[in-house]
Design brief:
The complex is a heterodimer.
Chain A: H1 3-27, H2 30-60, H3 71-93, H4 103-115, H5 133-167, H6 180-213, H7 221-243, H8 247-271
Helix pairs in contact in A: 1-2, 1-4, 2-3, 3-4, 3-5, 5-6, 5-8, 6-7, 6-8, 7-8
Chain B: H1 7-13, H2 15-34, H3 41-48, H4 50-58, H5 68-97, H6 105-110, E1 114-119, H7 123-136, E2 141-146, E3 149-156, H8 163-184, E4 186-193, E5 197-203, E6 209-225, E7 231-242, E8 245-253, E9 258-260, E10 263-282, E11 287-293, E12 299-301, E13 306-315, E14 322-329, E15 338-341, E16 345-350, E17 353-371, H9 375-394, E18 398-407, E19 410-419, H10 423-442
Antiparallel strand pairs in B: 1-19, 2-3, 3-18, 4-5, 4-17, 5-6, 6-7, 7-8, 9-10, 10-11, 10-17, 12-13, 13-14, 14-15, 16-17, 18-19
Helix pairs in contact in B: 1-5, 2-5, 3-4, 5-8, 7-10, 8-9
The chains are: A mainly alpha, B alpha+beta.
Bound molecules: protoporphyrin IX containing FE (HEM).
Chain lengths: 281, 448
C-alpha cells in the first residue's frame, strides 16, 4: 500500500461520510448518523496512516521531511485537521448534525488536492529556505486555526439556515438542529480556539522568516492576508464581548472570516505574488 | 480623573474606535496586497496610467505600509489600546485585589448560582466542616465574622482577569520592538569570496557602506544538490576576526544564521566564478600555497618547481558533483594526469616527492546582515500575547462565599458563587462543592 493509495481512499471515504451526514440531517435517521461517524473515523485513520507513510516514503527517497511542504500536502493536512477538530466537537457536544456542515469541507479539500489543476502530488525535496522546524510549527499551528475557522463557518451556515427557517415557522428537518443559542455558543468557542492558533501561526511564521531572512515581518501579501484575517476575527470577538453582538451577525462574520482564510490560503498564491510561492508547485 | 474624561479621552477609550481601526487596517492592508509595493515609478504609470499613478504617489501607495496614513492608523490602534487600558485597568485591579470578606451580605443572597443548606450543628462546627470540605475540593477558604455571622470566602485565579490586559500590552510591546528595530537597526548585504574577509557591508536602504567594527572571513562555501538538481544546502563556514584574532567560528546555512555583537549574518545567495581554489602543499618542505585557477590555464609554482592545470571535467556517481582532471608536473619530469573530485584533498607522489593537492570550485557567499536590537522585544511581546490569550480565553476568576448563621434552632449555610466567564464549567464545579459540603455537614458529629 502506498501513501497516495491511502490518501485516495480517504478522499472517497470523506465523500461517503459527507453524504451520510447530510442524509442524517435530511432524513433524521439515527443509523445513518452512526454510520457517518464510523466511516469518518475509519477514513481518518486511513488518512493518518497515509500522511505517516508519505513521511516515511520521503525518507526512503533520501529527502526526508514532514509532509507539510507543498500545496498538496498542506491540503491533505488541512482536511485532516478539520476532521480531528470535528470529531472532538462531536464527542464534546454529542451532536452529529454538525458533521453535515464540517466533513464536506474535509472532502472538498481532499478532492481539490487530488484533482485540482496545477497541484503537484509528487514528494519533492525541500529547498533550503523550507528546512526549518519553525516552518513545521508554522504550518501546523496555522492549519489547526484554519480548521477551526472552517468548522465555525459551517456552523455559521447552520445558524443562518435554522434561524431563517424559524422565522418562517417552518419546522421539520430544521427542528432537529441544535438550539440557536447552542449553535451560537459553539461558533464563539470555535472562533476563540481558531484565533488562538492563528495568532500562534502568525508568530511562528514571523520567527521562521526571521531565522531564514532576518526579517520577521515584510508585508508580503501572504503575511498581510493572514494579518487581515486576524484583524477580522479580533474585531468579531470584540464586537461580541464588548458590544454584545450575537446570533446572525456573528454567524455572518464566521463566514466572512473564513472567506478571508480561503483567500489567504489560495487567493494569494494564485492572484498575488510573494515569498510564499508554494502554491505554484 | 474627571477632568481627564474630556471628549478626546473618551473617543480614544472607546471600543467602537477599536472596531473601526481594525476594520480600516484590514481594508488598507488589502490595498497593499493588490497594488504591488516598492516597484519603480514607471511601473505604476505603465500598469495604471499616468493619472492614477500620480494619485498613488500622492497617497504613498507604492510604499503604503510606511506611509504617514498607515502609520497613523497603527498609532491610533496603539493610543486606543493604551487609553482603553488606562481607563479600565484600575477597576479590574480592584477586582483582583479586593477583600471579598467585606462583600455586601445582601448581594450574596441574590447571586446565581446559590444554594442553602440547613443543619442542626452549631455555626462554628459548620464553618469548620465547610472549610475542610472546600479544602478537599481545592478551595482555600478565608474566614471573617460579620454581624455575629460567619462568612467564608474562597477564590480561584483572581489574576486571570488581567489576561486581556496582557494581550493588549503585548501588542504595544511588539510595536515598541518594531520601532526600536527600525530606528536603531539596519539591514544590508555583503558578498564575500572564499578565503577573503569583509569589514564593511552595504545598506539596503541607500547602498551606503556600513563599518561592522570587526571582520567576517568566509573560509569555505559549499553547495550541495538533490538528485533532481534542486539545491539542497548552501553552507558558509564563517569566522569572526577582531584585530586578526579569531573570536567565533560557525558554519551557517539558510535558517541557521550566525550572531555576533548584535549583528546577524544570514546565508542568502552565492556567486560562482567558474574558477577553482587549489591548495598545494609540498609535504617535504611543508611549503603551502593557495591558487585561484582558471580551467585550461597553466599555473607555475616556482618554490617547489611545480606546474599544473585543470584540463577536463566529468560527472561522479553523485549527481551534480564533478571531478576534474589535473595535469601535474614537477622536477621528476613525470606528467601523468590524475582526477580529483570537487572538495576533495588527495596525495600526489612524484619521483620520491609527496604533495597534498586540494581542489574546490571557487565561490563567493552572499550574506544578508541584520542588526535589530528590537527583535527580542517583539518576541517577548509575542510570548506575552499567547500566554495572555490562553488566560483570557480559558481561565476564569471563580469565587465562592458561604454565609453561615443561626436560623431557627439550627444553622443555615448560604453558598453563593460567581464567575467572570465560562458559567457552565463553573456551575459544574459549584455543584461538586455543594455535594461534598452537604455530605460533610449532614454527617454524624465526629465522636469527641
Ligand atoms: C488587534 C488587537 C487586539 C487584540 C488581539 C485584542 C484581544 C482581546 C482579547 C483576547 C480580549 C479578551 C476576550 C475575552 O475576554 O474573552 C479582549 C478584550 C477587550 N479588548 Fe481587545 N484586543 C485588541 C485590540 C483592542 C483595542 C484597540 C481596544 C481598545 C479599546 C480593545 C479593547 C478591549 C476591551 C474593552 C476588552 C474587554 C475587556 C473586558 O472583558 O473587561 N482591544 N481583547
Amino acid at each position: 500500500m502506498t501513501s497516495s493509495q491511502l490518501l485516495g481512499i480517504s478522499t472517497l471515504g470523506y465523500l461517503v461520510a459527507s453524504a451520510l451526514y447530510i442524509a442524517t440531517l435530511i432524513f433524521k435517521t439515527k443509523k445513518s448518523g452512526v454510520a457517518a461517524s464510523i466511516v469518518t473515523l475509519i477514513t481518518f485513520l486511513a488518512q493518518t496512516a497515509g500522511i505517516g507513510l508519505r513521511w516515511y516514503e520521503s525518507y526512503a527517497m533520501g529527502m526526508g521531511h514532514a509532509p507539510l511542504s507543498n500545496m498538496y500536502e498542506s491540503l491533505v493536512f488541512f482536511s485532516w485537521s478539520i476532521v480531528i477538530f470535528y470529531l472532538l466537537l462531536e464527542l464534546k457536544f454529542n451532536n452529529r448534525l454538525i458533521g453535515a456542515f464540517a466533513i464536506p469541507f474535509a472532502f472538498i479539500s481532499m478532492a481539490y488536492a487530488s484533482f485540482g489543476s496545477g497541484i503537484n502530488q509528487e514528494i519533492s525535496p525541500l529547498i533550503p529556505a523550507l528546512q526549518s522546524n519553525w516552518l513545521i510549527a508554522h504550518v501546523i499551528t496555522c492549519f489547526i486555526g484554519y480548521a477551526a475557522f472552517a468548522v465555525a463557518c459551517g456552523l455559521g451556515f447552520m445558524y443562518l439556515i435554522k434561524s431563517s427557517a424559524e422565522d418562517k415557522a417552518d419546522t421539520g428537518l430544521i427542528s432537529t438542529l441544535p438550539e440557536l443559542r447552542v449553535i451560537d455558543d459553539i461558533i464563539h468557542k470555535t472562533m476563540i480556539f481558531g484565533f488562538l492558533w492563528l495568532s500562534a501561526g502568525i508568530i511562528t511564521g514571523a520567527i521562521w522568516a526571521n531565522s531564514a531572512w532576518g526579517t520577521y515581518w515584510s508585508w508580503d501579501p501572504k503575511e498581510t492576508w493572514s494579518l487581515i484575517t486576524w484583524f477580522i476575527y479580533a474585531a468579531t470577538l470584540h464586537a461580541r464581548f464588548t458590544r454584545g453582538w450575537q446570533g446572525k451577525r456573528i454567524a455572518w462574520l464566521a463566514i466572512i472570516g473564513f472567506v478571508s482564510v480561503i483567500f489567504t490560503y489560495f487567493g494569494v498564491n494564485f492572484l498575488l505574488s510573494g515569498l510564499h510561492s508554494y502554491g505554484n508547485s | 480623573m474627571s477632568n481627564k474624561k474630556n471628549s478626546i479621552w473618551s473617543f480614544f477609550a472607546s471600543v467602537k474606535l477599536a472596531l473601526f481601526v481594525l476594520f480600516f487596517l484590514a481594508i488598507a492592508s488589502v490595498i497593499g496586497t493588490v497594488i504591488p509595493q516598492n516597484s519603480p515609478p514607471e511601473a505604476y504609470v505603465q500598469e495604471f496610467g499616468a493619472n492614477l499613478a500620480r494619485f498613488f504617489q500622492i497617497l504613498d501607495i507604492p510604499d503604503m505600509y510606511n506611509s504617514w496614513w498607515f502609520t497613523s492608523l497603527l498609532v491610533m490602534l496603539a493610543l486606543n489600546l493604551t487609553i482603553c487600558t488606562l481607563e479600565r485597568l484600575p477597576n479590574v485591579w480592584r477586582l483582583v485585589v479586593q477583600n471579598n470578606l467585606e462583600t455586601d451580605l445582601e448581594r450574596l443572597a441574590k447571586m446565581r448560582p446559590s444554594k442553602e443548606i440547613l443543619t442542626a450543628i452549631s455555626p462554628e462546627e459548620a464553618a469548620s466542616r465547610a472549610r475542610t470540605s472546600l479544602a478537599e475540593n481545592g478551595w482555600k477558604a478565608k474566614e471573617a465574622v460579620r454581624d455575629n455571622d460567619i462568612l467564608l470566602f474562597a477564590q480561584k485565579r483572581p489574576w486571570s482577569r488581567l489576561g486581556v490586559y496582557a494581550v493588549h500590552t503585548s501588542i504595544l510591546v511588539i510595536f515598541g520592538g518594531a520601532m526600536i528595530g527600525s530606528h536603531f537597526g539596519y539591514k544590508g548585504s555583503v558578498m564575500i569570496p572564499e578565503t577573503r574577509s569583509a569589514d564593511t557591508i552595504f545598506s539596503f536602504n541607500n547602498e551606503e557602506p556600513i563599518k561592522l567594527g570587526f571582520e567576517v572571513l568566509c573560509k569555505r562555501f559549499t553547495l550541495t544538490h538533490y538528485a533532481n538538481g534542486a539545491p539542497k544546502e548552501f553552507r558558509s563556514d564563517l569566522v569572526i576576526l577582531e584585530n586578526g584574532k579569531e573570536m567565533l567560528a560557525k558554519s551557517i546555512v539558510v535558517n541557521d544564521p550566525l550572531s555576533y555583537k548584535g549583528h546577524t549574518f544570514y546565508q542568502s545567495s552565492y556567486q560562482s566564478y567558474k574558477k577553482f581554489l587549489v591548495s598545494l602543499t609540498d609535504n617535504q618542505s611543508k611549503e603551502n600555497e593557495l591558487f585561484l585557477v582558471e580551467p585550461g590555464k597553466e599555473i607555475k609554482w616556482p618554490v617547489a618547481d611545480v606546474t599544473f592545470g585543470i584540463i577536463n571535467r566529468d560527472m561522479t556517481e553523485t549527481p551534480y558533483l564533478y571531478k576534474y582532471k589535473i595535469w601535474f608536473k614537477d622536477s621528476s619530469g613525470v606528467a601523468e594526469p590524475f582526477w580529483v573530485t570537487d572538495g576533495d584533498t588527495i596525495s600526489v607522489s612524484r619521483g620520491g616527492k609527496d604533495y597534498t593537492f586540494a581542489l574546490k570550485e571557487f565561490f563567493a557567499t552572499g550574506l544578508q546582515v541584520t542588526k535589530d536590537p528590537g527583535v527580542w522585544y517583539v518576541y517577548i511581546g509575542c510570548t506575552l500575547m499567547l500566554l495572555g490569550l490562553m488566560v483570557a480565553f480559558f481561565l476564569s476568576h471563580q469565587r465562592i462565599w458561604i454565609h453561615i448563621r443561626k436560623k431557627d434552632a439550627g444553622t443555615s449555610l448560604l453558598i453563593s458563587g460567581n464567575t467572570n466567564k465560562n458559567r457552565l464549567a463553573f456551575e459544574k464545579n459549584f455543584d461538586a462543592v455543594n455535594r461534598s459540603l452537604e455530605d460533610k455537614i449532614q454527617a454524624a458529629p465526629e465522636t469527641a
